[in-house]
Amino acid sequence: MFHLSSSQQKTEDAAYIKTIILKPNSVNSYAPILRLGESFQLIFDDLNADEHDYTYKIEHCDYNWNSSGLSDSEFVDGYAEDRIRDYENSFNTLQPYTNYRLTIPNDDTRLKISGNYKIYILNEEQEIVFVRKFVVYESVVTVGVTVYKSRDISIINTHQSVEFIINHPNLRINNPKEEILPVVLQNNNWQTAIKGLKPQFYRGTQLLYKYNKETSFLAGNEFLYLDTKFIRNTTLNIAKVEKGTDLYHAYLYTNEERIDQPYTLLEDINGNFVVRTLDGDNNNTDADYGWVHFSLSCLENLDGKDVFVSGNFNNWQLNNTNKLNYNLDTGLYEAKLLLKQGFYNYQYVTKNQEGVISNSDIDGSFYQTENDYTVLVYYKKFGSRYTKVIGVGYGNSKKLNN
């Protein structure tokens, strides 16, 4: 167990750390949710390209992502803290960087229990350069998930509702309302997670959660996308490419607000991204970086709200790096982001002065939108010192029920 000093507390990634990927090795999944014993990989780039020594620290957390207070030996075989030894410099790129890779479990670190985890990456000065969350689960219960069109007439055209059933034939639960703690995620975005749900009905060894309003999500709109696999040439949604002093600049076609437009199906990967290049053989070290210029035409009155471009590529963070600024000369909201070559989903979101985030102010919300849903089942048995994750279920709105 380790404690963070006040100087170590941070939520934003260091500016020179880019393209952080945390995902399971064994399944075709973008989400850092894995079965106990399965391996996962963490990949990131350091644009300083100095082959710095980085250390990882793993922390077991409770249902609310606070430290469980467990000693390291209670949740890990080996060490919860160690150096990252696998790294390689970029090859033949305009932007030099060092690519770091970590796989867990490894010879030094093997996780013993399920639950929420945080992995911290620290530099030589023991400063945190970034932190990521991941979930380890056991298959003790099964979860059936169904996505419905909302039954509330006031939001029937804009929301999707999630119902689920937890099957626990091999687990005796004495107090389900207190011991079972489900979480519902839309597109694996923890910013919009729904928590605090209690079972409505009991049927043998089943817990039924058939809420409507309480499990309703704004359906949003299909994600926009860009592809920079050819860094020197235009591809779909890129209007022009220019060679700058150091790097290439890709200018996207101006996006129009979609809130007043009818729903249009766009195939997407629900906010995720894939690093890929056709300019080399190794995506990790041959893919280059370039500046991607975003522009948004928005006539809606945003009432002073800030506008951001967001997706899993930046861990859904909203900060000055991905904030759009209004250009009086062009009449557009504009931003430029330094991105590694690849295929990216993104969306425009707003945040008001109270910190309320919306993904529908600009792009609208339509019940037809295809979204992924995940239900995680947390279990805190009376007297236990930590919270387990005992099951996971998946649903998708492509098969939307009425």
From TrEMBL:
Q: List, for all copies, the residue spans of the domain called Type 9 secretion system plug protein N-terminal.
A: 17-138
Task: Name a Pfam family for this protein.
Answer: T9SS_plug_1st
Please name the Gene3D superfamilies in this protein's record.
Immunoglobulins
Q: Which SUPFAM superfamilies match?
A: E set domains
> Superkingdom of this entry's organism?
Bacteria
- Residue stretches in coiled coil: none
The name under which this protein is listed is: DUF5103 domain-containing protein
